[in-house]
Amino acid sequence: MLATGFRQANHNIVEPTQELAREAASIWDRAIHRPIGIVAGDGFIGFSASLALPDHPRVWEAFEGRRQPEWWITPELIDQRGVLAFCREADTKKDKACNATSGKLIRERNGWTCQIEARRSLGGMTGPVLRVNVYFVPPKMLEAEQTCAP
After folding, report:
1. pTM of the complete model
2. For a 10 Å CB count at each end of the chain, is N or C smaller?
3. Could you give the CA distance from residue 135 to residue 12 in angstroms, rounded to a whole number?
4. How many CB atoms neighbour CB 35 within 10 A?
């Protein structure tokens, strides 16, 4: 079943969402030296990050503007915990909204962005490359080393 899902490009099997989340977390840890508080952006990657990362960050599900944001997402919480946002570089309306929202956050809160890519392999098969823009929004009043190296 795994090989069939991989051949059929089932996104849950082919897309390296956990790998991308771990790489972004490595950059966060090196630059910020604090646990990740909130993950946002693309639903699949954000959800994978919330499960795969040892910090177990909260997921900001309505980040790209699909509906009203969760009641607990406040500017104070963002200032205290920071945000790690994942946005695909594709040209869909959702991806454009995600990148625009993330860009606004990093401009307002002295953050930075990196592009990360990964792909999965299985038994000689290679899945498609998944490229995402990762936005690093550090907690307020924290000096962060703005780097893209894990």
Report:
1. 0.86
2. N
3. 23
4. 15
Q: How many CA atoms lie within 13 A of 25 on its CB side?
A: 23
Biggest CA pair distance of the chain: 49
Axis-axis angle for helices 17-32, 43-52 (nearest 10): 70
pLDDT digits (tens, 9 = 90+) for 34-78: 999 999 987 778 888 888 887 788 888 777 655 556 777 888 999
Question: What H or E segment, with its residue span, contains residue 114?
Answer: strand 112-118
> Which pair of structure tokens corresponds to residue 125?
């098969």
Pairing assessment for the beta strands 83-88 and 38-41 based on DSSP bridges: parallel
The helix/strand/coil state of 134 is: strand
18: helix, strand or coil: helix
Of 60, 81, 79, give the one whose Cα is nearest residue 71.
60
Q: Where are the alpha helices (DSSP H) in 16-149?
A: 17-32, 43-52, 75-81, 93-108
Under 8 Å CB-to-CB from 28, ≥6 apart: which residues?
36, 84, 136
| Residues forming beta bridges with residue 136, ordered by sequence position | 84, 112
